[in-house]
Amino acid sequence: MDIILGIRVQDATIIATSKAATRGISILKDTDDKTRELNAHNLIAYTGEAGDTVQFAEYVQANIQLYSMRENDIELSPLATASFVRNQLATSIRSRKPYQVNCLIAGYDTKKDQPTLNWIDYLGTQVELPYGAHGYAGFYTTSLLDKHYRKDMVVDDGLKLLKLCLKELETRMPIDFKGVYVKVVDKDGIRSVELD
Amino acid sequence: MSDPFSINGGSAVAMVGKDCIAIASDLRLGNQSLGVSNNFEKIFGFGDKCFLGLTGLATDVLTLKETFRFKTNLYKLREERSIEPETLANLVSSTLYERRFGPYFVSPIVAGLGHKDNKPFICGFDSIGCIDFAKDFIVSGTASDQLYGMCESLYEPDLEPEQLFETISQALLNAVDRDALSGWGAVVYIVTKDKVVKRVLKTRQD
Amino acid sequence: MAGLNFENYQRNSYLSTKGFATPRATSTGTTIVGCKFPGGVVIAADTRATSGPIVADKNCEKLHRLAPKIWCAGAGTAADTEMVTQLIASNLELHALSQNREPRVITALTMLKQHLFKYQGHLGAYLICAGVDPTGAHLLSVQAHGSTDIGKYQSLGSGSLAAMAVLETNFREDLTKEEAIKLCADAIEAGIWNDLGSGSNVDVCVMEVGKDAELYRNYLTPNVRSQKARSYKFAPGTTAILRESVRDILDVEETVVSFDQMEVDTEA
């Protein structure tokens, strides 16, 4: 029931993840951040089996940073980052105990000056999208996004659209997901945003 | 949640014409009933006049696309020429059969013209690499049953490139309209000896 | 074959525990037969390949060459009959080259059965193996588990019952070559008409002592598609296009330029 949502606008990619950490019928925490910074311009947001998620996110985070240390401070592009993560999951699904992790990767390609949003599931299915979500959130929000998304939106428009989605989720989701953390990835890097 | 071939959905078809071939696919990528992307291409080029269509489980489509990119690049380095469609077909077959007891969940199709003689070639495979050499058309994907019907009635031999385009497009379009898991856009490649034309079709969006 | 890769086996077992179905391989739900005659042997097959209830290929080839004068008809999982046959064919050629002799049918059969036994029936290949070698004409068969049979006439595949009925009634020890071909073709036809898994055409291969093997591809074509009542061509422009991109393929032409005299700088 975790919510992760991503919207790519003209100059940035926006990610929203629910704050609630649930186990069974209990909410264990209302300040859970389901994202990790992979490098200066790449952010991974994840949902899935507890334990697998953080383990996997931090594993790819470490390896992506190790790559940059070894390779003369070259920062992996969003496409390279997403391909790496996909490859890890596609390999994992063939192993004895696969990672059950679905993720979104928000990135900003500093060479091409382009924001990207990559949707990757636990099977290793990867696709570049203008907006996307994992889990039940997708069923409630994709129709809204289809209707209101415009190619020429900027961050503020994106945040407005995001608020629209969150309002829908708050009314329709069966449990309280304790609000969301919102992060923006643009040419200056990754930053948190407070929604009013 | 039962058949890995129909989690993501998608269909492809190839046809032989007069000194040309056409290969087409839809553009949908879904997660069960939820459409995720309307821009997921399933046809990949290897060399100028050689194409591979991959339908089935999307993660395996991506993995195999990369595998064959790797293998055909090495082939090109070793042989100093692009791979022929017949050779690609055998490469696909042996790559799939290598995983006889743990297959990739895909149904590939190959279409192309010979690099020297421009001889049209198409073929299809099952998920463990059995080649289906056909002289007329090859279908694959979640709308394959519908495509068999469409192709069997619309196809005729020796069509000129433009006529072949209409035939393959209408066969694909009308087949995917009867499949909930396929559609959401379509793309067609028409390959003749001196050019490759790629056309993105206007389709239903439901 | 460097060996099979079992990597995905684990993944797929895992997937099937989660309720995923296993893939449907193309099968040659076939009729294949073979019969001997004094001085030679004939094998024959239908040409239908199925995937579940769908006819995947209306004119596939089920007669495989193991060696120039040893041929083999395959039923069962199409990929397995094809691959096992290719593997044995190349090993047989290497064997023939190293021994400097023509390969024997019994050698091919032994290689096939040892390979299939190793895989405990998981390779679904059912083969009728026939040919001529320095010891004469032979007709043998192998089952997926590795067991083998020898006989004067044999049939295998889903249409084997229909075919065997024909073989049993019409087989004689003193068939001529033409009669043997006819008998095999009739037996396959019995499968084509009476077995759902078999259909389309009849392929025949004749191997005679002291002669080259002869393959009659589509020896009988009793299921030719009738002329379509009308053409279903669409008017150009029927299909709406959103975008078009064209890639021109440059054809490099090479011409050899010959010089009458080599240009040499004589000044220096």
UniProtKB/TrEMBL annotation, chain A:
One Gene Ontology term of the molecular function aspect: endopeptidase activator activity
The keyword Nucleus is annotated on this UniProt entry: yes
Entries under Gene3D superfamilies matching the protein: Glutamine Phosphoribosylpyrophosphate, subunit 1, domain 1
GO biological process: proteasomal ubiquitin-independent protein catabolic process; proteasome-mediated ubiquitin-dependent protein catabolic process
Compartmental location: Cytoplasm; Nucleus
Keyword terms, alphabetized: Cytoplasm, Nucleus, Proteasome
Keyword Nucleus found: yes
A GO CC annotation given for this chain: endoplasmic reticulum membrane
Regions annotated as coiled coil: none
Pfam families recorded: Proteasome (PF00227)
InterPro entries: Ntn_hydrolases_N, Proteasome_beta2, Proteasome_bsu_CS, Proteasome_sua/b, Proteasome_suB-type
Family: Belongs to the peptidase T1B family.
Function (record text): Component of the proteasome, a multicatalytic proteinase complex which is characterized by its ability to cleave peptides with Arg, Phe, Tyr, Leu, and Glu adjacent to the leaving group at neutral or slightly basic pH. The proteasome has an ATP-dependent proteolytic activity.
Subunit structure as annotated in this protein's UniProt entry: Component of the proteasome complex. The 26S proteasome consists of a 20S proteasome core and two 19S regulatory subunits. The 20S proteasome core is composed of 28 subunits that are arranged in four stacked rings, resulting in a barrel-shaped structure. The two end rings are each formed by seven alpha subunits, and the two central rings are each formed by seven beta subunits. The catalytic chamber with the active sites is on the inside of the barrel.
Name this polypeptide is given: Proteasome subunit beta
Organism from which the protein derives: Spathaspora passalidarum (strain NRRL Y-27907 / 11-Y1)
From TrEMBL, chain B:
Primary location: cytoplasm
Cellular localization per UniProt: Cytoplasm; Nucleus
Alphabetical list of CDD domains matching this protein: proteasome_beta_type_3
One annotated GO biological process: proteasomal ubiquitin-independent protein catabolic process
Keywords attached to this entry: Cytoplasm, Nucleus, Proteasome
One GO CC term on file: nucleus
InterPro entries: Ntn_hydrolases_N, Proteasome_beta_3, Proteasome_bsu_CS, Proteasome_sua/b, Proteasome_suB-type
Domain of life of the organism encoding this protein: Eukaryota
Record's subunit section: Component of the proteasome complex. The 26S proteasome consists of a 20S proteasome core and two 19S regulatory subunits. The 20S proteasome core is composed of 28 subunits that are arranged in four stacked rings, resulting in a barrel-shaped structure. The two end rings are each formed by seven alpha subunits, and the two central rings are each formed by seven beta subunits. The catalytic chamber with the active sites is on the inside of the barrel.
Protein family membership: Belongs to the peptidase T1B family.
Name of the featured protein: Proteasome subunit beta
UniProtKB/TrEMBL annotation, chain C:
SUPFAM superfamilies to which the protein is assigned, alphabetical: N-terminal nucleophile aminohydrolases (Ntn hydrolases)
One GO BP annotation of this record: proteasomal ubiquitin-independent protein catabolic process
GO molecular function: threonine-type endopeptidase activity
Catalytic activity: Cleavage of peptide bonds with very broad specificity
Regions annotated as coiled coil: none
A UniProt-annotated Pfam family: Proteasome
Keywords: Cytoplasm, Hydrolase, Nucleus, Protease, Proteasome, Threonine protease
InterPro entries according to UniProt: Ntn_hydrolases_N, Pept_T1A_subB, Proteasome_bsu_C, Proteasome_sua/b, Proteasome_suB-type
Keyword Cytoplasm appears in the UniProt entry: yes
Leader sequence segment: none
Keyword Ion transport included in the entry's annotation: no
Domain Proteasome beta subunit C-terminal: 222-257
Subunit relationships: The 26S proteasome consists of a 20S proteasome core and two 19S regulatory subunits. The 20S proteasome core is composed of 28 subunits that are arranged in four stacked rings, resulting in a barrel-shaped structure. The two end rings are each formed by seven alpha subunits, and the two central rings are each formed by seven beta subunits. The catalytic chamber with the active sites is on the inside of the barrel.
Entry protein name: proteasome endopeptidase complex
Organism of this sequence: Spathaspora passalidarum (strain NRRL Y-27907 / 11-Y1)
The organism's taxonomic lineage, starting at the top: Eukaryota, Fungi, Dikarya, Ascomycota, Saccharomycotina
